[in-house]
Amino acid sequence: MRTDVWQQLYTDLTLGVQADQDSFAVALGDRQILLPIRKLPDGRGVASLILNQAGFSVLDALADAVAAGLHDYAPEVVVAVPTLGLPLAEAVARRLGHNRLVPLGYSRKFWYDEALSLPLSSITTPGGGKRLYIDPRMLALLQGKRVVVVDDVLSSGASIATVLKLMDIAGVAPLAVGAAMLQGDSWRGRLSLPVIGAFSTPILHQGAAGWAVSPQQSA
């Protein structure tokens, strides 16, 4: 198993499944990022990105791309989706000239309002068991403002759909969503607002010759 995934930017990789059948190269501008292939419980495969384990040069390049895509929406506030969306959202907010962001959270503080929370599930936590919260003290920073939401990966779309529902409960209508990776295309059916991704990856299937791009891309 390779240990150099998501640690640096390359200029000489061939895009797609690598010869080791354990990693996948994606384009980011004129450079490439190497990602590990993870096998899902149903046998399909996905290229994985864990941002808080990524090299700083990779995080910087992803933040540059997402911030550039969100710039035209003139956002006043960036909402960060926990947990792995936090490092990207902070870097994006800084590039947009902001001096802070508004983080959502999974941990309930005693002053939180349960009405400002929703149960959450995702492709990596299909059983759920978590709740997504917004600190009531953050509402004044969001309401009436131009808001964008930043997450690490969009895959099934379940997590980001919950985030947007929570924003609606809070009286906030985000202008766009930014993410480092857009995985498959299942998320498209859950979103009706613009999505900015630094790069996209396909769903994979494993055949006799190894991993290959699946004709069915929904995750």
TrEMBL record:
Q: Does the record bear 4Fe-4S in its keywords?
A: no
Name the keywords, alphabetized. Answer: Glycosyltransferase, Transferase
Which residue numbers delimit the Phosphoribosyltransferase domain? Answer: 67-181
One GO MF term attached to the UniProt entry: glycosyltransferase activity
UniProt-listed Pfam families = Pribosyltran
* NCBIfam families hit by this protein: PRK06031.1
Q: What name has this protein been given in UniProt?
A: Phosphoribosyltransferase
* Organism per entry: Ketogulonicigenium robustum
